[in-house]
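Reply to dn_fold:

You asked what the input looked like. This is it:
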Amino acid sequence: MLVIRMARAGTKKRPFYHIVLADSRSPRDGRFIERLGYYNPLLPKDKEERLKLDMDKVKEWMTKGAQPSDRVMRFLDKAGVAKRKPRNNPEKAVPRKERKAKAEEAAKAPAA
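and this is what came back:
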């Protein structure tokens, strides 16, 4: 399966990512098929050099069945190429003690 994902480059504490097309079985920073762009998270969000993607290649590979990772999908959604489904985890907002108490109550209810 082909995936469009980020491969980390740069030095310690200075991240820089290449956006690559790779086989899903290959390691994160390992072998890839084609480099599609880059992402520099250290630059301010309003800078144009922060993210560069070859949209023609991305679209071409997506038509061939390549699946973008969640972070790459966010970039594509912002560019208007693909629509990302919003995620919702309401459990994350509940404090841990309350979640634990609710889980214990749920466990007791079916037993009764």
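DSSP finds three helices and five strands in the chain.
Hope that clears it up.
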